[in-house]
Amino acid sequence: MSAAAASTVSFDSRFATELAEMAIPWRAEEVPEPRLLVLNGPLAAELGFTPDFLRSPEGVRLLIGNDVPDGATPVAQAYSGHQFGWFSPRLGDGRALLLGEIAHVDGRLRDIHLKGSGRTPFARGGDGLAAIGPMLREYIVSEAMHALGIPTTRSLAVVATQRPVQRETVLPGAVLTRVAGSHLRVGSFQYARATGDDGLLRRLADHAIARHYPDVAEADNPYLALFDAVIGAQASLVAQWMLVGFIHGVMNTDNMAISGETIDYGPCAFMDAFDPATVYSSIDEAGRYAYANQPLIAEWNLARLAEALLPLFDDDEERAVERAQESLGAFRRLYSAAWTAGMKAKLGLDRVADDAASPLIDELLGLLREAGVDYTSFFRRLGSAARGNGVMARILFPQPDAFDAWVERWKALGPDADGMDRVNPAYVPRNHLVEEALAAATGGDLEPLGRLLERVTDPYRERPGVDRYAAAAPESFGPYRTFCGT
Description:
By secondary structure, this protein is α+β, with helices and mostly antiparallel strands. It folds into 2 domains: about 5-180, no CATH class; about 185-425 and about 470-485, no CATH class. Helix content is about 45%, strand content about 10%. It has 19 helices and 11 strands. A 5-stranded antiparallel beta sheet has the order 2-8-9-7-6. The longest helix has 23 residues, at about 220-245. The protein is globular. The two termini are about 35 Å apart. The relative contact order is 0.11.
């Protein structure tokens, strides 16, 4: 039975059809003996797939693009991008393919996208492959982000290819099947603008509006309204990253999605000890994408989006620039409001006025930084302090006197302990546990991966007997560096 016959899911190819200038038809490399490593059964059901079908040989071949269902037109997408501040006019999917779009249970379209499916015309000398470790990292972290309520691409499956991949060493290969609202990026608009074809730029913007922000189509200036909507989505997204201590690691403009979803989990990590200067990525030597810089980089990337969209804002370039600057000026206000509201929730102070809460927030962050306190552990333990037992939070500080004084002022505002437990996770993908799971999986043992996924996809419910999943990294873990995996 063919994949198309076995699955009731209907595929579409809107991007490939509507924006053919930005799509190169391509096929995934054939994998003779694929082996399913992990399948996201609940997500499969939301997309209309029968999980048992996706576990079958035909289903696995669909997941890696070797069986192309009716209606799907696999394409490598074209886009540009500023990478660490330097503009590259032609990047594109060097090792990825957009298989097609399907309808989610919520009625909205989702991209089905392959990563590690082989070289494309955009490969730029790369092998187009991916190793098991980085693909499972994206699976773990993206599903953890979804469980935390943070907009993100999702991971449907990781399939082993039984193919060796040469990186620093020879590693076993894999393909990730990714699900996203779309793969439209700031870099997509940069590419369209760089062609000099304003008609293509307009069609791309219309496609983005229809896909993500249909309400703005009725605005007086729908393209400026689209820009405003993306600004709002990104301000909210980055604030949520900051609130959970997530560090993306490579915030190039080709890694900023128009949808406001977190995309491209390469050298990402969750911060351990609180330090605004934290950088984990091995390729970010200057700290451009450090934790504290993420809001600034998001604003910078949005400025690049504005430059790409200028011809659509106004026929007069000077007026177009003025309108773009006015819109972009809202980012810091929106981000600050989202960050402050989120931090108040973490402290159980939702009902406290900003002018009363903000000094406490600023003082606390200074204390956390000075003492190098584990970020996730602290906020989770602070819920117990709101209930009158502050010992577990207090012992995180080598010299707790200043913290004790802070606690008294904080408790006087009546923090909501139950509310704190709803927003401060007990479990995140801690770096040492992720590395442990990836090393085991690369060697053929998937049990640590399963145990970690069980915790991080249900992050707010504390369970007995799993304390190690809530604990900070041991000192022996040492300085941590992440790698892009390409």
